[in-house]
Amino acid sequence: MERKVGNSVCLWLILVAHPLWMTMVLANMEGDALHNLRTNLEDPNKVLQSWDPTLVNPCMWIHVTCNNENSVIRVDLGNAALSGQLVPQLGLLKNLQYLELYSNNISGPIPRELGNLTTLVSLDLYLNSFSGPIPDTLGKLSKLRFLRLNNNSLAGPIPMSLTNIYSLQVLDLSNNRLSGVVPDNGSFSLFTPISFANNMNLCGPVTGRPCPGSPPFSPPPPFVPPPPISIPDFKYGGPTHLKVPKCKVDMSYKHGRIDIGTREVLGSSGSPKKHL
Ligand SMILES: *[C@@H]1O[C@H](CO)[C@@H](O)[C@H](O)[C@H]1NC(C)=O
Ligand SMILES: *[C@@H]1O[C@H](CO)[C@@H](O)[C@H](O)[C@H]1NC(C)=O
Ligand SMILES: *[C@@H]1O[C@H](CO)[C@@H](O)[C@H](O)[C@H]1NC(C)=O
Ligand SMILES: *[C@@H]1O[C@H](CO)[C@@H](O)[C@H](O)[C@H]1NC(C)=O
Questions:
Q1: For the chain, what is the largest distance between any 2 Cα atoms, rounded to a whole number of angstroms?
Q2: What pLDDT, in 10s, does the model give residues 32-57?
Q3: How confident is the model at residue 238 (pLDDT cuts 50, 70, 90)?
Q4: pLDDT at residue 175 greater than cutoff 80
Q5: Partners of 172 in the beta sheet?
Q6: Spatial contact of 71 and 112, defined as CB atoms under 8 Å apart
Q7: Are 50 and 61 spatial neighbours (Cβ–Cβ below 8 Å)?
C-alpha cells in the first residue's frame, strides 16, 4: 500500500515536471479525435488499420502526418472508399493544414467544428455524399487556400462569411444543391461561374440569373446598328492610351507650335482639344 502511494506521487511528479507532458496530452487528444473518426467510418479496404489508439500519438499512423511537436498537420484519405460520417472532434486538430477526404462515400453534414481548424490550408471534401448546409463557421479559416466541396449534396445558401477568406485561391462548390445568392464581393470577386456550376437554384451576377425579388441586371441596350464609319478615336487612343504627358501637349499649344512627337499623338487621336 505504501509503495503504491509512493509510485503515484512519483508518477505525479514526472507528469507535472516533464516538459513533454503538454505535447503528450495534445497528441493523445488528437489521436483520440482521429480514432473517433475511425470508429464512425466504414473502411472496406482497411486503410485505417494502422490507426492504433494505444500508441502514444497518431504520428505513426498511415495517412497521418505530424509536425516536430507530434501534432497532426495532414490527414490524407482521398480515394479510400470510406463511407459513414465525420465527427465534430476533427475540430480539435488545431494544427491541421490539409484535410483530404475527396472521392469517398462520406455522408451526413460537414461539422461546424471544422471552423476551429484555423491553420487549415486545404479542405477537400469533393466527390462524396455530404448533405446539409455549408457551415458558416468555415469563414473563420483565414489561411484556407483550397476549398473544394464539389460533387456532394450540399444544400442551402453559400455563407457570406466565406468572402472574408482572402487567402482563398481555389473554390469549387459546383454540382451540389445550393441555392440563394452567390456573393461577388471580398475574396469571391476572383471566382467565375465554374466554381458554382450545376447547383439547384443559385442566383446573382456570376450565375447570369437575377435573384427573385431583386432588381434585374441592367437591361441590354436596344439594338442599334453600328455606324458605317469606324471610330479611330476609340481604337488608337482615348485619353488612357496617351503615352505623351498632357503637359507637353499643353505646352505645344501655348507656344503656338506642334512638335513631331505631339503631332503624332494628335494625328492618331483626332481633335486635340478633346484630350486636354
Ligand atoms: C460509393 O458507393 C457506391 C455504392 O453505394 C459505389 O458504387 C461507389 O463506387 C462508391 N464510391 C466510392 C468513391 O467509393
Ligand atoms: C469549436 O467550434 C464549435 C462550433 O463552431 C464551438 O462551439 C466551440 O466553442 C469551438 N471549440 C473551440 C475549442 O474553439
Ligand atoms: C461531378 O458531378 C457532375 C454532375 O453530376 C458529373 O457530370 C461529373 O462527372 C462529376 N465529377 C466527377 C469527377 O465525377
Ligand atoms: C460581402 O457582402 C455581404 C453582404 O452583402 C457582407 O455580409 C460581407 O461581409 C461582405 N464581405 C466582405 C469581405 O466585405
A1: 112
A2: 999 999 999 999 999 999 999 999 99
A3: very low
A4: yes
A5: 148
A6: no
A7: yes
Ranges of CATH 3.80.10.10 domains, the chain: 2-203
Could you tell me which of 63, 41, 61, 40 has the C-alpha nearest to residue 50? 61
Q: 14 is written with which cell numbers?
A: 514526472
What CATH number is given for 2-203 in this structure?
A: 3.80.10.10
Residue 54 main-chain phi, psi, to 5 deg: -85, -10
Report helix angle 246-254 to 260-269, nearest 10.
110
- Ligand 1 centroid, distance to 81 Cα (angstroms): 7
In the chain, the N- to C-terminal Cα span, in Å, equals: 100
Atom in ligand 1 nearest the alpha carbon of residue 127 = 13
Going by alpha carbons, the residue nearest to atom 12 of ligand 2 is 116
**Atom number of ligand 4 nearest to Cα 187:** 13
Q: What is the pLDDT of residues 205-234, one digit of tens each?
A: 999 999 988 766 665 556 766 666 655 554
Burial class (CB in 10 A: 0-12, 13-18, 19+), 230: exposed
CB environment 162-175: b (16+ within 10 A), e (fewer): bbbbeebeebbbbb
- Is there an atom of ligand 3 within 6 Å of 151 CB? yes
* 207 Cβ inside 6 Å of ligand 4: no
Mutate to test the pocket of ligand 1, among 103, 105, 150 (most ligand atoms within 8 A of CB): 105
Q: Which ligand is nearest to the CA of 88?
A: 2
Residue from 142, 160, 166, 168 whose mutation best tests the ligand 4 pocket (most atoms within 8 A of CB): 160
In whole angstroms, give the CA distance from residue 206 to residue 142.
23
